[in-house]
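ok so i was messing around last nite and threw this chain in just to see what happens. nothing serious, just curious
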Amino acid sequence: MTADLLTVPLHAGRAIVETGAVFACPLLGTDRFVRFCSDCNLAISRERLIRLERLGLFAPVFRVKTPRKATRQFRIPPAGSTNWFSKRWARDTTAVPQVHAVPTHTDRTQEGYYSIFQIYHLDSVLSAVTLELQLDSFLDLDPDEPVDWLAAGTRWLSRTRDLAASLRDHQYRPAVALLCQHISNRYYPQTQSDMRTQQVRKGSSSDQWVVINAREWDWDDESQHWDPGKTKRLYRLTPEKLRHAYEGLATAQAHCDPIRHWYPLTQFVSVRERRKLKNDALRAESLRAGAHMLRLLHIDLYGRDLPHPNEVTGTVVNHVPELEARRDVRRHLEFVANRFGVNPQPRLSLIVEGQSEETAVKQIFEDYFGSHPGVLGIEIVVLGGVDVATGGKREDRFRAIMRLIDYLHHHQTFAFLILDNENYAHRLKNAGKKMKSIHTNRRYVTRPEYIRIWKRSFEFDNFSCTEIAAALGEVAEGRARFTAKQVRAAREEEQPGAALATLYRLKTNCGLPKIGLSEALVRRMLCPAARRNIENRPIVGVLDRLAVLAARNHLPTTQRTRDANQESRYLGLKRRPRATRPRRSVN
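result:
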């Protein structure tokens, strides 16, 4: 088993610095590393960190000390006479077992530099030397029987000494952290991604001792000239060693991540927002980045992909969504958003003629059904009139609106069209019965019942002439009075909506405020004193049906489900396959 474990190469810390493997993911000075560990929910302080180093349990990647004479800061990557390692002002501290001298925690003439990936090693060390004592277990004892604290303490200390002795020669976890840091210039930017974009660190950074000059470093150039074989030879990698290291990091991040079951979704969250994570979630995020880098290195070296870090600890029976579907990142995000119920895609699009119908629908949903249509997953699309829906060219009169409906159904958004009985509305509905979908050969564009044509118009089908006359008088604000007889006469015209607008203009010398009229009509419909029960209004029945239809539209989480839904009868009538005639043979 030990043959499959990584070991620390000779002078690994110096190699990291001299090759400049700190541009994409810089090393952290002692105080910054302590803050990072605290953010990752690791109980550490500067004093404890250096004490662990003095005990030979945990060490930085390298240390620097203040030169005896005034000199410029240590520039990374070093060149020629600027290399502090050659001058012995910098020292590699990665040897196992430890051989370097360790300063006190109050000594500010020296500084240690750490990799963020060392939290994998540090966590195991802290677990070994930290005692969790549950005092309530002693409350069950006889109060008159004294607790032998000396024997218990001796036993605990002896166990800790044994664990510490084994950790001093432990190379695997330190080697994993060093390997991750060593390959960070090539792979770390790929882990800082929301699956669509990635962030590459540019520029320089400095402190009292060190200057990291990354201004001339280019990640694209790094990627083109990257030779994974150098890393393979330095760390004596084999497929077994690299896979074991990858699985160790992946398992560690899965065990400490409090939101690991949400990772299919959080991987699409912006890097800026993910950096705001704290405690175990931040620690898991850092470990997962290391695991991803080892996975990418494995692909480059051996041409084989490894399971996703969050799929290492369990057995995956069915991938959700399928691996093939994940190649399209946009579709992958769509399926994941559907799974977690955060996809804002409408379940149903209600297409209406104008803003007056839109206003009425929203008011009925909010005041009668008690919810904004958006809460129910319903969006309202305003056409601007029947003519917009039916088109202008005779030979292509209905194609535009039907293609819109076909597109919506292709994305599994039910499309419901409501029109007044004017112009070519009925011809459009008839055209919808025989228009074939361009996205599948298994069904038509829609179902006939998804196109609703009022017998006359929205106003005359849902409100009495008396109600309309009263509403007209209300919006006229006393400038004119209207009677039910006048409204009834407009209703009998070929285009009752236009006739009603003409009546209003003749009486008030102003255009009919359709939105105000809709609001006044709906208020009367919702009034408890209304003579007609609201349940008997056709618009209420239609909207109730739409709410049910939207609620039952469960967006797919896999490609297989999506394909099955596309061929179902819910989006459109099914097409019968054309019977093929057998060919006649010619003798």
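not much to say yet. The mean pLDDT is 92.
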